[in-house]
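The data layer described in this paper is built around a simple, fixed record for each protein. Such a record has a labelled line for the sequence and another for the backbone structure tokens. For reference, a complete record is included directly beneath this paragraph.
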Amino acid sequence: MAYHTIILEIADSVALLTLNRPDKLNAVVGAMHEELREALTSVESEARALIITGAGRGFCAGQDLSERRFAETDRPNLGRGLESNYNPLIRRLRALPMPVIAAVNGVAAGAGMSLALAADIVLAARSATFIQAFAKLGLVPDAGSSYWLPRLVGPARAMALAMLAEPLPAEKAETWGLIWKCVDDDALMDEAGKMARHLASQSTHGLALIKRAMNASFDNSLDSQLDLERDLQRVAGWSEDYREGVAAFLEKRPANFHGR
């Protein structure tokens, strides 16, 4: 498939997916959803780690509102777009059996912020900002934002971010625990690449199980989570990676994982 709204590069088991509408701050249009679906299929079969970033001076400004023009008498069904496009995208990223890194290089607004938070690890340039822009349009945070925000920064900060729609600088986002790390602008992609290459060299089978455990923990009781840890550890213990990890430890050498 020829891509027009994204760029996909895969090298050394690391996929770099760049949202590529820089003149629109990489705002999302229908074609981008189609291309993202195709790209993630390639990523799942060819890579062991994924970086998502944006071209130009922004990460993603959210939904392109030029696709939301309608007559005064229309009653647009925005839920349909979530059900068919955004929700499957967020679910797929969370279930992707490899680490996903968001390298936020500029503004991440609305659904663009939701997309960043759907990654497993979020790095941000020092000049980047996060904005829950939905309230400015009379809308509700979507694409997972109303789920992530209270869990990451607590209900008080989440409510204020959603209702006030004020920009949150990357440095404060790090301090609040919204993201993993804030780095200098010119170091962002080097940092993301270094992290992705490291993760791709690890037991991606084990990392995928870690994702499953962490994602389930939000809704599980302690007893349920203990049972899940038992079940996932059983699966991990059957893997080639576990045998290799133990052998490497005993032989005092670096492990050579294959993700199996």
In short: The mean pLDDT is 94. The chain is about 45% helix and 15% strand. The first strand starts at residue 6 and ends at 11. The radius of gyration is 19 Å.
